[in-house]
Each structure stands twice: as C-alpha cells, then as structure tokens.
Amino acid sequence: MDARPHLAAAEALIGRPGSRHAIPTPAAVLDLDAFERNVARMQARADAAGLALRPHAKSHKSATLARRQIEAGAVGVCCAKLAEAEALAAEGIGAILLTSPIAGAANAGRAAALSRAIPGFRMVVDHVDGVAELAATGAPLQLVIDVDVGLGRTGVHDPDQAADVARAILRHPQLTLLGVQGYGGQWQHMKGANARAAAVADGMARLATAIAAIREAGGRVEVVTGGGTGTFAADAAQGLFSEVQPGSYAFMDRDYRDALGEDPDGAFEQSLFVAATVISANHPQWVTVDAGLKALSTDGPLPVLADPALDGAAFRFFGDEHGMVTRPAARALHRGDRLDLIPGHIDPTLDRHDLIWAVRGDVLEAVIPVDARGASQ
Amino acid sequence: MDARPHLAAAEALIGRPGSRHAIPTPAAVLDLDAFERNVARMQARADAAGLALRPHAKSHKSATLARRQIEAGAVGVCCAKLAEAEALAAEGIGAILLTSPIAGAANAGRAAALSRAIPGFRMVVDHVDGVAELAATGAPLQLVIDVDVGLGRTGVHDPDQAADVARAILRHPQLTLLGVQGYGGQWQHMKGANARAAAVADGMARLATAIAAIREAGGRVEVVTGGGTGTFAADAAQGLFSEVQPGSYAFMDRDYRDALGEDPDGAFEQSLFVAATVISANHPQWVTVDAGLKALSTDGPLPVLADPALDGAAFRFFGDEHGMVTRPAARALHRGDRLDLIPGHIDPTLDRHDLIWAVRGDVLEAVIPVDARGASQ
Q: Judging by beta carbons within 10 Å of its beta carbon (0-12, 13-18, 19+), is residue A112 exposed, middle or buried?
C-alpha cells in the first residue's frame, strides 16, 4: 500500500470550493492573502529604510516561499544550518547567507560545495580555526564575521578576536571578507518598543567596536547584517545595518503577537495556522483534537484558537498526538468539527510539518513542500 | 545540487571503525546493544506474566525496529494515527492496532483501505457515529472499544456508552468486536511504584465495569489492551489485560528515568541519544552545540549529557538550532567536540529526526529510516 495515501488524494482538492475544510489534519495551513500582505509590508518597510531585506528561511524552510520573498524584492534568504541551505539550493534558491558558524572538515567541505554550486552563497565564521578549515577546502568563499552582540550564542567575543578572524581571512586570496553579522535573538521577543530599542542600541555599540577593529586590521566591512521581526524599527533607527534578517513576520505567532502588540513591529497578520479535528467529544468539559506535541511547538506560549466565536475555549496539550480544547460557552463542539490554532512559536511548529497547505479564502490553492524540514545538520 | 549530500555520504561510513564519531549532527543515535537488551527484557517480562506484548510504534515510528520487536515475540505493534499505520504497513508491518479514534468519512475510508491491505489491522472506536462511519465503508474491520479509564482524552465515558457502541458494532456483520482498550497516559510517569499501582487499580475498576456492560449488551471481550512502560508491573498484577502496549522502554528518556528510578518498571537502558557538536566555544562560561528546539523535545524535562566525565555540565536550549552547554569543571570543551544528549521525552524527540543512526560500540552499523516521522494525520 501507499505510505501516504492522504497526500496522493490532496491534489484532487486543489481549486475545489470549500477544499480548505477537507485538508487532512493536523495540517499547517497558510492564508495566502495574509502571507502576501506580510511579505509586501516588510519589503516596503525595508525599502523605506534603505535596508536590504534578506528574510530568514528558518521560519518557512520552503524554496517556494523564499522565491515569493525574492520576487517581492528580497536580496536573498538566510539559512540557519548547512542542510537547510543545501535543501533550498537544490530547489533553485541562489542567494543564501548561512547565519550559524560550522565546525569540522566535513562540514567545511559541504560549505565549499555550496559555494561552488550557487554564486550567491555566503556564510558566517566566528573563529580562526573555522577560517582555517574553510581555507583548506581551496574553494572560493564569501565570509561574514559573526559578532556576539550580547546573546553569547555564537560570534567573536571581543574586538581582538574580531581582528584575528579578519586577519586570518585576509591571508587567503580565495576567501572574501564581506562584513559582519550581529544577531540579538533575545531582543526580538522583548515586550515594548522602547525596551527593544535600548537593547538594540547596546548591541549596536558592540558591533560598531568590532567593525572598527576589523577595519583597523585591514578588513573591509560592506555588509552589516542582523536583526529580526521584533526589532525592525530599532534596527532601522540605529542606521548601522545594511541588511536585515527577519523571518517570523511572514507567518507570525502568539509569542510575537503578545510581545509586539500594537507596536509598528507587530503590524503583521497571522497567516499560518495549524488545523485540527475533534476526534473525541465524550467528555462534558472538553473535546479532544488530533494535534498535540508532534504538531505544534511546546517551547513558547500555548497555541490559541483562531476563531473569535470560540472565545473562552482554551487549548492544552494532551499527549504526543492530541490536544484538549475546553468547551466554549457560546458554541457546542462536536466530534468531526475542525478548528484552526495559532501556534505559540512558529519556527519549530512549521518544522514538524512536511507540507504547507496554501489556501485563499476556503479554497486550497497549492500544496507547498517544506523542503528543509528537519534539515538541522 | 543534491538536497541532502551528507546523507548520501553516510553509507560510506557504515562498518568503519570510529564511524559513530563521523555521523552528521544533530543525529538520533541508537546503541543497538542496549536496544536489543531492552527489547529482550520487556518480552521476557510479558512472557513471564502471560501477556501478549504489542509495543507502541509511536516511540520509534520505524518498520525496521517494529520488525525486531515482532521477531523477539511481540504480537504486532500499536500506532497512534492512521498515517503512522499507513507508513508502517507500506513497509511490510502486517499487525497493527490503531490506538486513537478517528473522525470523518475520509478517514474511515483510509481505515477501510488499511484493513483490506493488512489482515492484522485493528482499531479503536469510542462513539456510535464512529461505528456508523466505519460501517458505511462496507469494509471488514476488527474493532476495539476505547474506554476512558480516567485520562479523559478519548474513550467511552461510562458503561451505558460502552454498551451503545458495542450494540452499534454488533448490528453490522462486517464489523468484528474484539474487546476493549484502557490507557492511562498520566499514570505512566508517576513517581513511585505504589502510586502507579493505585492509579492502575482505580482505572482497571472502570475498565471492568465497561467490560461487564459490553458483555451484557451481547458483545464479546477477548482482547483487553492498554498499559505502558511505566505501569507494566501494576498492569500485570491486576490481571485484567490480555495485552500491553509499552513503547518508550525500547529507547528510554530522562522523564522515565526520573519517574521510575530503581523500580522494576525502570529496568531499561538509555539506548537513544541525540549527538551534537560544539560549533562555537568563544564564551568563557559555556559552549554552543548544534542541537536546539528542532532536534530535541521541549515538553518534558531538559536533556542531560550522557557522558559522566562531563558531570556538572548542563544543557539549556539556545534557540531553534542551538543548545548551550555550561563548561564542566573536570574537562575543557572545544569547538568541534561531540557530545551525546539523553532526551527529555523520547517520542517527540525522535519525531524530529528522519533517520536513526544505529551503532554498535563506536561503529555505525545501519541507517534506519523513521518511516512514520511526521505522520500525525
């Protein structure tokens, strides 16, 4: 028998009226109208600020959606891991910045292959040993020095180390130093535009110091990349970045909605939902849906129900494959009913899904593969 | 270019000395010796108790590993979702119990196709409407009435409903009533064998009442299935089950280790690890590894380091694709070092991985596909 018969049946749904309500659940459902408005809005913000937009593809992991962003004006996309970049490059995306450092000769070889395959490949490095591993491949590589601007996750730790890495790059004629990256992941979800702006200002001061050290070491810094959905306004105001890397704005999630509220940074619509079906409704206080730990992220806030008519109903996890939805006062819930959930944290939610079911209104318009799903290597 | 070049390279590693240390990370790494001891130990426990063993495949989602369990004496496996069952049936597993109710005509059609494709397919049902949907397919189906034994997630809610569902099944000659299921998911992770035994005793009383009602309605109850890794001793002692459904024992995780301690139910070894690599070590207090929210479950306790030589080092999540490992006192950690993590909760961890890298000692012996990864539909 076929391993995924419900997917073979999906093509027949495309274009049929009401087909949104026949998508097999749990499913990642994309409201294309909202997605397209989000893409246009972020591009307009970047254009107005004179910033290049390089959306982070770790949110959608899809070559199809990356292409939509590039067609709208993005200069390319970011990827978090080599495997993510390989998956998108294999599907024709030709401009990718790898935003995490890598380690080891085998991975350096993969980076070299990527650089030879797509002219627009560039990657970060944060240690002289990383430079040596890349240089040993003999491949031409375009490099960005990752600078720790306060997160402490990756990046050179101080200006001396920044200068050392720059000098190491300059020693190899096949390596090109493009500039620097500074990413403050923890700032993105801070509540309040002023709090985010203050954190960004501190981080940009650290980044400016690193840039000065690199220039003093003889390095060129033309690209200054970083930032995310939550800090766009502050990133633009600081004026240090040449390029920004927001990702979640295309889909949004509850975590960003709670943090950004009515700030300009929050002016994006929820476009990605996880559709679920009530599979048991025998309990008087709640019903059970078919989306659980394996369909939704659990690291952020709990998912919430998208339909305002279900006000008062709350979602709780109910094991690997199920969720509990408390019965709302206003509407009875029955076995077979379908519900849309707003995920708590969009990136790890989408990484649990092989497909994005793209709808316009209640019509399924396309089934989009999540090309880099699981591509964490 | 190839979408997953590191996987194409993996086959060359098989059988090579030290190849365990060349597996691309983050990776789900299975210690085959420990896995085989776990499988043999649970089979011996079931045999000694006179119980049929039907391991839950939601833990491993792999036809290869299901076959190992069946070869060791299991009567078949359990699946949580239709798509999980379809994926394993497509790879030749012929005896599957679907342990969650389904809803809707489309899904009933998929169940009918499964029943026609593999003679050993059986499934639970917990509502007369579910029986009607299955009956409408015209397919011969072997059914088990799911009974809520206290979890409140799925199952008939009281003896009257159990009798109603039994009568609905008996009305259709192509439907066969095999028996009942009672699963207490919340009991599995209770600390202390006595606490688990008391909870099981309460639940078994509810299950016995449902069985009596079904028999009074004219239904046969030959199969009594349920239970899990944490409650095996209590399940066997109660004597009501004919068949048990443990899953996690094959791999184990930190959550079960913490709950079961030195109880007989905890007498299984950690066999599944997530291997990670240090990709940045610039910070004085910690290093950054390449396994984060997309490689490990976040719903249970935090992962812990497997190597006792790293005593004192703690893992924390550090975003989608990274983890923080605090520097231990006894050993320096460097860029490029590899670490094995014990996952917090094994089932959702494994569902983030496409492949299981099966090792014996430090040699990669096989690369096993996680056939039903993401198969939540």
A: buried
pLDDT of residue A156: 98
Residue A238 Cα, gap to closest chain B Cα (Å): 25
Strands A355-360 and A363-369: antiparallel
Q: Does B54 touch chain A (CB under 8 A)?
A: no
Closest CA to A144 of A127, A128, A125: A125
Burial of A62 (0-12, 13-18, 19+ CB in 10 A): buried
**pTM recorded for the entire structure:** 0.97
- The residues with which A175 forms a beta bridge, in sequence order, are A141
d(CA B374, CA A353): 6
Q: Do residue A293 and residue B347 have CB atoms under 8 angstroms apart?
A: yes
**E strand or H helix at B169:** helix B159-170
* The residue type at B66: A
**C-beta of residue B124 within 8 angstroms of C-beta of residue B98:** yes
Kindly provide the residue ranges of all beta strands, DSSP E only, lying in B281-353, ordered along the sequence. 286-289, 304-305, 315-317, 323-326, 338-342
Q: Measured between CB atoms, which of B22, B103, B291 is closest to A335? A: B103
| Residue B156 per-residue DSSP state | B
B-chain residues within 8 Å CB-CB of A81?
290, 321
Using CA atoms of B253, B258, B261, B264 in order, give the dihedral in degrees to the nearest 10: -50
- The model's confidence at residue A45, banded by pLDDT at 50, 70 and 90, is very high
ipTM of the predicted assembly exceeds 0.85: yes
Tokens of B123: 């499934």
Contact list in B for residue A285 (CB cut-off 8 A) is 152
Interface of A with B in 228-267 (CB under 8 A): none
> Are the beta carbons of A80 and B320 closer than 8 angstroms?
yes
Q: What is the pLDDT of residue A329?
A: 87
B282 vs A126: CB contact, 8 Å cut-off? Answer: yes
Residue A322 C-alpha, separation from nearest chain B C-alpha, in angstroms = 8
- Could you tell me the sign of the dihedral formed by the alpha carbons of A323, B246, B98, A24, in that order? positive
CA distances (Å), origin B374, targets A4, A27, A252, A295, B106: 11, 11, 22, 8, 19
Measured between alpha carbons, how far is B295 from A83 in angstroms, rounded to an integer?
13
A120 touches chain B (CB under 8 A): no
Which residues of chain B carry a pLDDT beneath 70?
none
Tokens of B9: 């390279």
Contact A103 B278 (CB under 8 A): yes
Helix, strand, coil in percent for chain B, rounding step 5: 35, 20, 40
**B127-143 burial by CB neighbour count: b if 16+ within 10 A, else e?**
bbbbbebbbebebebbb
Q: A99-112, pLDDT tens digit by residue?
A: 999 999 999 999 99
- Taking CA atoms, A154 is separated from B68, B286, B318, in Å, by 42, 11, 10
Task: Decide if B291 touches A, using CB distance below 8 A.
Answer: yes
